[in-house]
Design the sequence.
């Protein structure tokens, strides 16, 4: 019997604190357990575009480009698996095939799920991960409201913080004006004035 649990994306929740973090909420089939994973703004936007079928940016985002390259080389993404949780950090793998050749590659859960949504392939977690990190819906709502308290893969060193800022700026530059207006309203609603200022700057360039 497989120890994999099938998951579905239920949505994204913005942090109530000005950190730019988002909680990605996954739900298991059957018992409807919730698995919240904290992700960065760039990955959150990429997942939101895939979920909501939002207007595509003028230039392809990183996950769109990766998916296109796989498709052009006849590589099929068959599943993604969140396979481990260590010290508050989730680990995932991409399982992909070209003909009969099946391989796996390590990935952050946020990137893996962004690609899975584009490839319309199943998302799983090992039962051991669910045992450690899944929760009832009421508890998941509390965790999702404070995603910056248990980050998935955003390190505390300044180098990765700078990288995340650069990725956020790149995501903004690729977003449509309509998407930027929506993000601006959300940022102001949550009093994230630093992000709102970046979005306004990008809108003023248009």
Sequence:
């Amino acid at each position: 019997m497989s120890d994999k649990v099938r998951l579905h994306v239920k949505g994204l929740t913005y942090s109530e604190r000005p950190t730019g973090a988002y909680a990605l909420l996954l739900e298991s089939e059957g018992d409807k357990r919730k698995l919240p994973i904290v992700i960065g703004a760039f990955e959150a936007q990429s997942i939101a575009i895939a979920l909501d079928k939002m207007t595509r940016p003028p230039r392809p985002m990183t996950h769109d480009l990766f998916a296109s390259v796989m498709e052009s080389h006849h590589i099929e993404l068959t599943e993604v698996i969140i396979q481990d949780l260590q010290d508050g950090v989730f680990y995932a793998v991409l399982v992909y095939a070209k003909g009969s050749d099946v391989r796996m590659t390590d990935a952050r859960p946020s990137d893996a799920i962004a690609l899975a949504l584009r490839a319309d392939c199943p998302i799983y977690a090992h039962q051991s991960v669910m045992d450690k990190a899944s929760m009832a819906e009421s508890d998941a709502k509390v965790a999702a409201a404070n995603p910056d308290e248990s980050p998935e893969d955003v390190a505390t060193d300044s180098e990765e913080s700078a990288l995340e800022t650069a990725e956020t700026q790149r995501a903004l530059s690729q977003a449509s004006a309509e998407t930027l207006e929506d993000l601006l309203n959300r940022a102001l609603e949550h009093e994230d004035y630093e992000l709102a200022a970046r979005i306004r700057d990008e809108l003023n360039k248009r």
